[in-house]
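Notes continue from the previous slide.

Worked example: a multi-chain complex. Inputs as given:
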Amino acid sequence: DIQMTQSPSSLSASVGDRVTITCRASQGIRNDLAWYQQKPGKAPERLIYAASSLQSGVPSRFSGSGSGTEFTLTVSSLQPEDFATYYCLQHNSFPRTFGQGTKLEIK
Amino acid sequence: EVQVVESGGGVVKPGESLRLSCAASGFIFSSYSMSWIRQAPGKGLEWVSSISGDGNYIFYAGSVKGRFTISRDNAENSLSLQMITLRAEDTAVYYCARSISGADFDFWGLGTLVTVSS
């Protein structure tokens, strides 16, 4: 199974800050990685697919990069609605595996 | 408008069975793989099972293999998850999600809560 190690597990930041979340795969997964945002009591929503492609309707302050084993999600200037939990997902092979999540909180 | 709506959740005792359903609309159901993903209270996301658009390819997480069965009815645009021998650790919100074959989950339902408790 491919393990996805996501860091940090939590992050405290202010509106306007630039933040980066990282996911490392235990083996190469090409660019078969997506990023999701989940708000309390809601279903996850896709932000990024194929490691760096922005989901339609998602603000351009979100960006993804990486290939192989290391991936990042960057929010260039945090907005109040961005405080949520973020997950990466590898879909290179079964079983599909998620990172442990990063809870982004307001400082 | 794309919609997937889960149903069938509830409270059951350990060892009992439950069947979840997912009704899909707004897209060509048979063209998409469908999956179940769960989230235990206060925990992260865990993939459970996936089935290809034609139903010929099925995958399970090790934690549910032999106890859960995924199936689909393309004529009815529906997905199911039959769960037997339920355990306390199966307690979670169960989400139905679609994906293009081999790809990630691009659309999720709102989920249905399964509670396994004596």
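Summary box: Chain B touches chain A at residues 35, 44-47, 50, 59, 61-62, 95, 99, 102-111 (CB under 8 Å). Chain B has a mean pLDDT of 97.
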